[in-house]
Amino acid sequence: xxxxxxxxxxxxxxxxxxxxxxxxxxxxxxxxxxxxxxxxxxxxxxxxxxxxxxxxxxxxxxxxxxxxxxxxxxxxxxxxxxxxxxxxxxxxxxxxxxxxxxxxxxxxxxxxxxxxxxxxxxxxxxxxxxxxxxxxxxxxxxxxxxxxxxxxxxxxxxxxxxxxxxxxxxxxxxxxxxxxxxxxxxxxxxxxxxxxxxxxxxxxxxxxxxxxxxxxxxxxxxxxxxxxxxxxxxxxxxxxxxxxxxxxxxxxxxxxxxxxxxxxxxxxxxxxxxxxxxxxxxxxxxxxxxxxxxxxxxxxxxxxxxxxxxxxxxxxxxxxxxxxxxxxxxxxxxxxxxxxxxxxxxxxxxxxxxxxxxxxxxxxxxxxxxxxxxxxxxxxxxxxxxxxxxxxxxxxx
Amino acid sequence: xxxxxxxxxxxxxxxxxxxxxxxxxxxxxxxxxxxxxxxxxxxxxxxxxxxxxxxxxxxxxxxxxxxxxxxxxxxxxxxxxxxxxxxxxxxxxxxxxxxxxxxxxxxxxxxxxxxxxxxxxxxxxxxxxxxxxxxxxxxxxxxxxxxxxxxxxxxxxxxxxxxxxxxxxxxxxxxxxxxxxxxxxxxxxxxxxxxxxxxxxxxxxxxxxxxxxxxxxxxxxxxxxxxxxxxxxxxxxxxxxxxxxxxxxxxxxxxxxxxxxxxxxxxxxxxxxxxxxxxxxxxxxxxxxxxxxxxxxxxxxxxxxxxxxxxxxxxxxxxxxxxxxxxxxxxxxxxxxxxxxxxxxxxxxxxxxxxxxxxxxxxxxxxxxxxxxxxxxxxxxxxxxxxxxxxxxxxxx
Lengths: 397, 397
Prior knowledge:
The structure is a homodimer. By secondary structure, chain A is α/β, with parallel strands linked by helices. Chain A folds into two domains: 3-44 and 288-396, Aspartate Aminotransferase, domain 1, CATH 3.90.1150; 46-284, 3-Layer(aba) Sandwich (Aspartate Aminotransferase, domain 2), CATH 3.40.640. Chain A is built from 14 helices and 14 strands. Chain A has helices at residues 9-12, 18-26, 46-65, 74-86, 102-113, 128-136, 153-162, 185-198, 221-224, 253-266, 272-284, 287-312, 338-347, 378-396; strands at residues 32-33, 94-99, 119-124, 140-147, 150-151, 166-171, 201-205, 230-235, 247-252, 318-319, 327-331, 350-351, 353-354, 368-372. In chain A, helix 8 links the parallel strand 6 and strand 7 (201-205). The mean pLDDT of chain A is 95.
């Protein structure tokens, strides 16, 4: 039997995440990868987590190893709710659940809200995991450009006037993936206004928000929302450990209820053991101190990478200047294909994410590419940027 | 904004799993629950897992806490593939991936194959998690009765003649949830024949298959399949720990590839830490010895529960006689509503799963109910069955 003939319409045309494919390349020995979105693994509090895991399994094994409830391990859920409440993220009618990484939140909310043919407005560029989730529910994806202060709200309003089927706008407003750009508070307010006027829902994906290493904090869109229009996704992936797959979602409790039903059929619940480990870590230690240390390192790495780029890259290559997060975004002169550049770079053992994989229309030619500065060491950053500079000089001369 | 008005068609009418809701009831102190599907938590090798977790996080923290690949932690994937190969489950064109519990496999395969309006044939009764996954993709569910030797294949063929939109048949052929019934090898062969004749795919869900405590083993449908028509789901939930959420799926590699793309947008990957713990446990210790011990306990518990039921229940209440797994199924005289019985039982602090929640048409009245014998202690089984006998005697007199 040809199984391909049986594929559903929703997955028939999906392509695997180029970023996930990158993980396979990263396994190639000797490669310097700016392609992933991984935190610096030397920051993981492995020793502390080892002791915590030992204690939990010894003393509370039957709880840690048994089925749990779909909404999440209650003490962790309470801790997250409390923290988000202090950040004014939890509205009066809201509920918060623990999910298997922030990605799951996007997918559960998409499944709960998007019908075939509904339009989802995405920042262009955006996070491939978000884009692919919407694609997998046969949404119509509409890209809106990202300026230096966030999504182009004028272009957005034009799109909203032209498309009356917009149900969701997906944004990573703070230290955006892939651009590293942070949306201004004015634009956040404007987004909420437009959501009200054109009756759509905002997905605010905020995995990097706490990783600010310079500049002033900007309030989350969720904290500014009075109309219950924002679905908020947070994560422990970038501030503690991605391999544990723990995130959280906050939204109107009626929507959370639907998302919980969808989570029941996806994975029943997030593993109890990892949730307990996470909860014990954040109660026993200061996550804020840990975040502070991560910010210090990422700030230094970002600074170092930008300094090298400014010295070595051809002047026609522009890049963003993030105040936090783990990515920056480069743009070569129009018409240069960053996919071709990637091939040349991989030949010299350096990897990055080409712009195309971050775009709503992934089949056009883009001159942009994403660099991650959190995972590589300072030495690797130096070596990798030098190689990239060579590759760029060759390509652009 | 009324968020309910925005719900997608696929989730609008979904109801939460009554079984999951039961977990909340189970938290009520003093209740004896035959409702869940949990293994006996005294069987968990918590001490061994505690030491393993400690070691992994101390020695391989950066690996255990970092992002992993979607397909699963390679050593665990290899171990599972090897074990399944010995059971002749892995076909020539097949691939095997690690998933976040067997449930995720059902959902990924459903998402990859089922279009709105495609029909899925389900055993009636069946596992609510499977049924709800199919419902969440707007499949048409068609129930086929389960006899003492498995699905009614005559009725099945009638259904297949009448419905040309059948894409998938979902079965739990061994120690079925909820009935405890095992499908005969003749019927397994017949299913494959019908799949070939009527061109559909078989989802073989086998979380309980290794938990045989009496009778002779029956080959899996997957091992009998020559046409690449079976998608096989297995799990560590019932043989090691459900809270770790580790399962596996085996199917044609083209389908697995689609499922991997869907998994990328669901949870990126199953937590690396729990996969590493699981792998270390199965390589350091004998999972077969552990399974043998589980079978011994479950066999004794099942025997004990049946003995009490045969002594105390009204004679008009029939029950299945499982040779393995963790469930048995009772049927009262037609017309008696097991949901009403549940209310009376919960008043007296005993819980079970009413038949309605296991049926394709959940809104009819069913006189059947499911009892789980793995989780309760022998004392609780005695006490709970005595109470149930009282409730039954009251209801049926």
